[in-house]
Input
Amino acid sequence: MKTLVDRIDALLPQTQCRKCTFTACRPYAEAIASGDANINQCPPGGQKGIDALATLLDVKSIPLNPEYGEEKPARVALIIEEDCIGCVKCIQACPIDAIIGAAKQMHTIIATECTGCELCIEPCPVDCITLQPTSNDNGYQTEKAKMRYEAKVQRQAQEIKQKAERDKRRKAALAKLIAAKK
Output
């Protein structure tokens, strides 16, 4: 059976945009469930999302709090490829791995995966990323976006673990070398 947090999270757009001030949709859902956040902090979810949360929680619907942004039509990011310098800052910023490319190579956005979170725009040093309207129904494909986000989080955790293991082996090898020279 789904918890209240699961049901709240399922109503959120899964853009992982942080506009609500939380690091992702799930922490925002947890804060709503615990009473630490209000239901009107998600611009991508808009009034429709607020109304759905109000219905679920059996509270009065309220307007989107403009402090968190404004509701906008569904959009996706687009890299102006001839301007891209391959810095990888956009790749690192994308919460769902919707940008592909390599260091010092041109990058591109997988438009069908992009949630329009805008997190890739600020770190771009050459301002080669724009937002374009999308005709995607709902714009975000929430389940797919949530799975991509969770996969990225899991991959990053695995990378951290592997780096720690490599560092541990290097230190052990170095200690062994030092001991052998004594």
